[in-house]
Amino acid sequence: MTTKTSTNEQLAEQLAFLKLSFMLEQFTALAGEAARAHWDHVAYLAALAEGETTLRRERSVQRRIKQARFAVIKTLEQFQWSWPKAINRQQVQHLFRLDWVAEKGNVVFLGTVGVGKTHLATALGYQACLKGYNVRFATAIEVVNTLVAAERAGRLKQALEGYRKPAVLVLDELKYLPIDKVGADLLFQILSQRYEQGATVITSNRAYKDWAEIFNNDATLTSALLDRLLHHAETVLIEGPSYRMKDRVEV
Q1: Where are the domains of the chain?
Q2: Whole-number Å distance between alpha carbons of 237 and 203
Q3: In Å, what is the CA distance from 24 to each residue of 13, 39, 55, 231?
Q4: pTM of the predicted model as reported, rounded to 2 decimal places
Q5: Mind listing the pLDDT tens digit for each residue in 83-141?
Q6: CATH number of 76-250
Q7: Best CA proximity match to 76, nearest among 118, 29, 117, 123
Q8: How far apart are CA 126 and CA 139, in angstroms?
Q9: CA angle at 222 for the pair 206 and 188, rounded to the nearest 5°
Q10: Whole-number CA gyration radius for the chain
Q11: Where does the AAA+ ATPase domain lie (predicted)?
C-alpha cells in the first residue's frame, strides 16, 4: 500500500529530476492551501505552473543582465531630468518602448562629457533585458582591444560573433581615441554586420561631422559607416555641463 509520505517522496524526486524548482519547494504548502480553500485539481496545478513560470522568467532576466556585462545597472527612473540644459524628454521616454529594437534600428546619444549619455544607454539596455532581448554592453576601446587580441590569437571570427549576435549592442564612449586603422576597420566590421540585423546604441561626445577623427581620419570608411548607422536611427542630443562636476561647480 502506497503511503502519503512515499507518494510525496516520489513526487519530490520526479520534480527534482525535471528541475522544477518552484514546484519542488512549494507543492506541499500549496496542497495545504488548496485543501483549505477548496481548490480543484486544475486550480492547484495552475498555481504550481504559474509559480514555476514566474521563477523561470526571473532567472532568465537575471541571466540576460549578467550576460550583458553592464558596468553598473541604471534605470530611466534614476535619470536626473533637471540636470541637462537641453534634452528631448518625450523622445527619450518613447525609446523605452523599444520599438527600435524590434525594427533593428539604432539609437545614438550625442553630448559632452557627463550629461547622462551612458546612463540612458545603459538604462535602454537594461530595459531590453527585462523585455526578453539579449544585450551586450561594452566601451568602444574595450571592443577594439578585444578584437585586436582575438585577431592575433586567430579567434577573430568568434570574437566578432560575440558582438554581432546580441539583439542589442550598447557601444559606449565612441569618441576621440587612439584607434589605428586596424581598430577602425574592426569597429566598422561590427557595425556593418549589424546593419538591419540587430539594434545598436552608441554614445559619443563627438558630432557626426567629427567622426572621421575617431576612425583614423578615414573619410571613406566613416561615410560608409554613417550611411548604414543613420539609415534607421534616432539621434538624441543632450546639452549641459558634466553632472559629475556638479558638486565642485556648486562650491
Answers
A1: 4-67, 76-250
A2: 10
A3: 9, 19, 12, 51
A4: 0.85
A5: 899 999 999 999 999 999 999 999 999 999 889 999 999 999 999 999 999 999 999 99
A6: 3.40.50.300
A7: 123
A8: 16
A9: 100
A10: 24
A11: 103-239
